[in-house]
Every structure is written in structure tokens, then in C-alpha cells.
């Protein structure tokens, strides 16, 4: 069983590599330095050379605001890269596990989005990811596209790291309180993907297609920031909690418009794979404990 992980140095990629090895799979892990996904011939040649049993694509262009100006790069990585991988998988008759985003939706639905709801991305990142989903679905039968949201981990830059840095520096922070979504620990997403890999390994029947998976419960960015500071305070990473002022999206303009509600309904993956949503607060605790051990936020 050879698992090829693309985008291995990212938040999700790092967790996937660790956990794939722990599960005993032969794991081939590459990032941008070893394989540029936007190069079709090298991607196809690499897959043909490695001969994996399954590919997990954790690579993406994830700079949501920068994508508004770096449009070609966003589409190259998020649309063309998955297409080239899907073509390689089709040729080798192997499955592709691909990751997408809650930002394919416009956020106007008041309740959690289903896999069958119509996407309507509000920015370049969301559009490029949606086109990646479509390219995979059109090219390959054996694929899983997993839409997730608000990813955090101990590696890389993310909301948790930003809030902790600001909380160390300031007594008061302002955080948007009118956007709802579900924080998701990269460790939990990795476990979900590897559960599916295990099914492939055991040759179990799989209903291929599009699934939603996020942490639980859905909250606002403001409530997420409050929880981060509270947990960091309890673990002794913060000596005092800052006042976190709730503000509107209006007061915090960004290059890319974000969906107001991007909570994803995750019942389908539970039905098909018996995978339940993890409580992201447990994942957050893991991340904070790791940072504490590494003295990452000590003053
Ligand atoms: N982050 C979130 O909040 C979020 C939310 C919803 C969905 N998602 C999706 O979840 C998945 C994982 O996200 P993540 O947060 O783990 O992303 P990440 O930390 O930004 O990692 C992405 C990785 O892809 C690599 N990469 C970029 N361009 C590449 C290329 N041309 N060829 C090969 N590798 C390339 C990056 O390398 P460099 O760093 O060298 O560029 C990076 O290591 C993505 O599909 C993302 O769209 C993320």
C-alpha cells in the first residue's frame, strides 16, 4: 500500500505524513520543492514512477486575499494541478483523495450547506477551488473530494497562531463576529482521509464523490478567538486574556469577500463512512500543548 501525499509540508500535509507512517503505509511525501503540481508532464511522470495505490492531494494555493491579484497562480495550483493529478490517476486506475473548501459557497444560506447545494464562490480562491473540484469529478470516477473549513494546526500560519501572537502583544483585539464557520484541526482531517485510505486498502466498497467534513461546533471568528485565548490562558501560554471586541465584516475589509455562513452539513460522510465530526476544541488543545512544549509563545 503506497500512499502518495502531495503538498506534504502544509498544515494538512504534515499531519497526513505523520499519521500515514504511524499506520504503517509506505508513504511517499512531496511538496513544491520536489514536485510542482502545475507542471503537467512532471506530475504525470512522477506518478508513473512512484506507482502509488492512492494519491492524497493536500497541496493548494491557500492565500485567500492574495489570490484576488495572483489569479493565474491560484487557478494553476487549485484547478490545473488537481486536473493533472486526476488524469494521472485515471491512467493508472487509482483513486484520488482531494480537498476543497467551504469558500465555494456564498454564505447566504442560514443553515449548514449540503453537498447538493449550489456553490457560488465570492472570490478567486473559492472559484479556483470549485473549478478544481469540477475538473476532478469530470476526469475520474474513483475520487473523494472532501470540503473542509477554517483549518488550523501546529505548523504554518493560521488564525490560531495570529490570535495568540496578537494576544501576547495587545490588551484589546477586534475580531469579526458576523461570519460563522467550523474550525477544523488538520489532525482530524488527516484521520478522516486515512480512514478512507484504509477502506481502499481493505478493498471495501466505496461510494466515491463529494463529501463535507469539518470540526464541531460551528461558531463565529470572534467566538473562536475567545476560545483560543481562554484555552491558552488555562494552559499558562497567556498570562492574561485580552478583551476581544466583536466587530462586523464591514469594519474589517479584506480583498476577498468571505461567506457569512459557511457551516457545512457533515451527515453524508457519517452515513457512508461512519465518520463523525470531531470537537475542534480538543484539536486546539493539542496544538496549544505542542506549542507550549516547544516554547513557541514564551515571552
Ligand atoms: N487553510 C484553511 O483554512 C483551509 C480551509 C478550507 C479548505 N482548505 C483546503 O485544505 C487543503 C489543505 O490546506 P492547508 O491549510 O494544509 O494548506 P497549506 O498549509 O497552505 O499547504 C499547502 C501546501 O501546498 C504546497 N503547494 C503550493 N503550490 C504547490 C505546487 N504548485 N505544487 C506542489 N505543492 C504546492 C504549499 O507549498 P508552499 O508553501 O511552498 O507554497 C504548501 O506546502 C487545501 O486544499 C485547502 O484549499 C484549507
UniProtKB/TrEMBL annotation:
It catalyses: dTDP-beta-L-rhamnose + NADP(+) = dTDP-4-dehydro-beta-L-rhamnose + NADPH + H(+). Pfam families: RmlD_sub_bind. Its EC number is 1.1.1.133. Keywords: NADP, Oxidoreductase. GO terms for molecular function: dTDP-4-dehydrorhamnose reductase activity. InterPro entries: dTDP_dehydrorham_reduct (IPR005913), NAD(P)-bd_dom_sf (IPR036291), RmlD-like-bd (IPR029903). The keyword Calcium does not apply. Pathway: Carbohydrate biosynthesis; dTDP-L-rhamnose biosynthesis. Binds 1 Mg(2+) ion per monomer. GO terms for biological process: dTDP-rhamnose biosynthetic process. Coiled coil: none annotated. The keyword DNA-binding does not apply. Residues 1-289 form the RmlD-like substrate binding domain. Its cofactor is Mg(2+). NCBIfam families: rmlD. Belongs to the dTDP-4-dehydrorhamnose reductase family. Catalyzes the reduction of dTDP-6-deoxy-L-lyxo-4-hexulose to yield dTDP-L-rhamnose. PANTHER family: DTDP-4-DEHYDRORHAMNOSE REDUCTASE, METHIONINE ADENOSYLTRANSFERASE 2 SUBUNIT BETA. This is dTDP-4-dehydrorhamnose reductase. It comes from Nitrosomonas supralitoralis.
Amino acid at each position: 500500500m503506497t500512499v502518495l501525499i502531495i503538498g506534504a509540508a502544509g498544515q494538512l500535509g504534515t499531519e497526513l505524513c505523520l499519521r500515514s507512517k504511524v499506520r504503517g503505509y509506505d508513504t511517499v511525501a512531496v511538496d513544491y520543492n520536489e514536485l510542482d503540481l502545475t507542471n503537467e508532464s512532471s506530475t504525470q511522470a512522477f506518478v508513473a514512477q512512484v506507482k502509488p495505490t492512492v494519491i492524497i492531494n493536500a497541496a493548494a494555493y491557500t492565500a485567500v486575499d492574495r489570490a484576488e491579484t495572483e489569479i493565474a497562480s491560484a487557478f494553476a495550483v487549485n484547478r490545473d494541478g488537481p486536473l493533472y493529478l486526476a488524469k494521472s490517476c485515471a491512467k493508472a486506475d487509482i483513486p484520488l483523495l482531494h480537498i476543497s473548501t467551504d469558500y465555494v459557497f456564498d454564505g447566504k444560506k442560514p443553515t449548514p450547506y449540503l453537498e447538493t447545494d449550489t456553490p457560488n464562490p465570492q472570490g478567486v480562491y473559492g472559484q479556483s477551488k470549485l473549478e478544481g473540484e469540477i475538473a476532478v469529478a469530470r476526469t475520474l470516477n474513483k475520487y473523494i473530494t472532501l470540503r473542509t473549513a477554517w483549518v488550523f494546526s501546529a505548523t504554518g500560519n493560521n488564525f490560531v497562531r495570529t490570535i495568540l501572537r496578537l494576544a501576547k502583544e495587545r490588551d484589546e483585539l477586534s475580531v469579526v463576529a458576523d461570519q460563522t464557520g467550523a474550525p477544523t484541526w488538520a489532525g482530524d482531517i488527516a484521520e478522516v482521509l486515512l480512514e478512507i485510505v484504509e477502506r481502499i486498502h481493505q478493498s471495501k466498497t466505496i461510494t466515491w464523490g463529494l463529501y463535507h467534513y469539518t470540526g464541531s461546533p460551528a461558531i463565529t471568528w470572534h467566538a473562536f478567538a475567545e476560545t483560543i485565548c481562554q484555552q491558552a490562558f488555562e494552559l499558562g501560554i497567556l498570562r492574561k486574556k485580552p478583551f476581544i471586541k466583536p466587530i462586523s465584516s464591514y469594519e474589517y475589509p479584506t480583498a476577498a469577500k468571505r461567506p457569512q455562513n459557511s457551516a457545512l452539513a457533515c451527515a453524508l460522510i457519517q452515513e457512508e463512512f461512519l465518520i463523525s465530526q470531531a470537537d475542534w476544541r480538543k484539536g486546539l488543545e493539542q496544538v496549544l500543548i505542542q506549542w507550549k512544549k516547544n516554547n513557541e509563545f514564551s515571552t
